[in-house]
Amino acid sequence: MIKLLHVEDDADIREIVKLSLELRDEFEVVQCSSGPDALSCLETFTPDVILLDMMMPGMTGKEALSLMRERPHVKDTPAIFMTARAQSSQLEELRAAGAAEVISKPFDPMTLGDQIKSTMG
Asked: pTM for the whole thing?
């Protein structure tokens, strides 16, 4: 079972991601609606992979990931960003910030699980 932390402020997108991943019986999905929520969730949950929205109010996905990396138990956990703004300059910036992959929105719920698994190697 792959433990996934999903951080996304849009409730509809959280629901689509949860449904698409849990249908596969390969993912345990824990969801948070903001960066600060995700940081508190990490007190009790150690994910195998982190799926982060880039644009969220209060704290961007990039800022949240930077703070997550300060925690020893997730400093090397693969992180995947989801963004509607996937220009090549931003892709390079996100990879430099530690993203293992960047998934563009809108994403395909039918292939999301495979995209995440291929990023994990």
From this structure: 0.94
Take residue 7 and report the two structure tokens written for it. Answer: 């951080």
Q: Which two three-digit tokens encode residue 14?
A: 């959280």
Is residue 5 a contact partner of residue 32, using CB atoms and an 8 Å limit? yes
Domains of the chain: residue spans and CATH: 2-112 (3.40.50.2300)
pLDDT in tens, 13-49: 999 999 999 988 999 999 999 999 999 999 999 999 9
Q: Using CA atoms, how far apart are residues 2 and 27, in angstroms rounded to an integer? A: 5
- Two tokens, residue 36: 């600060």
Give the separation between CA 54 and CA 95, rounded to whole angstroms: 12
